[in-house]
Amino acid sequence: MASLFSGRILICNNNDQDELDTEAEVIRRLENRLVLLYFGAGACPQCQAFVPILKDFFVRLTDEFYVLRAAQLALVYVSQDSTEEQQDLFLKDMPKKWLFLPFEDELRRDLGRQFSVERLPAVVVLKPDGDVLTRDGADEIQRLGTACFANWQEAAEVLDRNFQLPEDLEDQEPRSLTECLRRRKYRVEKAARGGRDPGGGCGEEGGAGGLF
Length: 212
Prior knowledge:
alpha/beta, 7 helices, about 15% strand, Nucleoredoxin like 1, seven-stranded mixed beta sheet
């Protein structure tokens, strides 16, 4: 996961806007976590409608007010704002645990092309190893709320096999009788949707319209 941001700076959305400017700091912040890449813009009407849902989703999974232990989840805001002032204004009311790229970093645009983002808002969910779990995160968050995190966690095997020693993987039984069915159900439902977000978004005819 850290390789995605190799040589880059990630900034914490706290009061001091602490910079994670070493690979060790980035690894420490992202390892063993599902990472949400949120592509959005403060001036986008569809983003304005979605972001309260996303904010509530993130807070309910990571804030100790709601959960005894924060979920293994990180979010990086990949700004598509037109100006740095718009980006700063948007982030002002967002959770302090969010991370974001500096406005001047062209990786903001490169990631959109890399993950084939066609409309805003978009949420790309990455496994801890950097592989894509789903590009339809925005749609799933709106439909399922925090319940979709359990689906992602189980599909990515975040807390179990990915972080066990090789010898621990042999003859491992499912964690529950329904685990295999849930994982299969998630993949079948995703395939049935064709991996596309049925909702509209910013851009020409609901598409990117040269967004990146």
